[in-house]
Amino acid sequence: MKKYQIITCLLALYAIFMTFYFGLDLLKEGQNLRFWITLIAEITVITLAYFALKKRDYYRDQRKKEMRDL
Q: Which burial class, exposed, middle or buried, applies to 23 when counting CB atoms under 10 A from its CB (0-12, 13-18, 19+)?
């Protein structure tokens, strides 16, 4: 597994834990909109982090390859 995949998986596990820990209380209190907005925001941030870290690793690998070729 690459570094960006591990970090994204850890963020996803954290989001799942927080959803069950706090999200169920929000749903019980009738704050459905707040629950869904928070969940969508977490998914968006994790997705953006995945692609940003993947791109960073790609550029890092390209730079290492260029340094080797010199």
A: buried
Rounded Cα distance, 51 and 22, in Å: 27
Residues 8 and 50 sit within 8 Å (Cβ to Cβ): yes
* Residue with tokens 């570094």, as numbered in its chain: 3
The one-letter code for the residue type at 40 is: I
CA distance 23 to 18: 7
pTM confidence score: 0.82
The residue with greater pLDDT, 50 or 20, is 50
Contact 61, 26 (CB under 8 A): no
Find tokens 């730079």 and name the residue: 63
Q: Which of these, 57, 20, 54, 58, lies nearest to 39 by C-alpha position?
A: 20
* DSSP 8-state code for residue 1: -
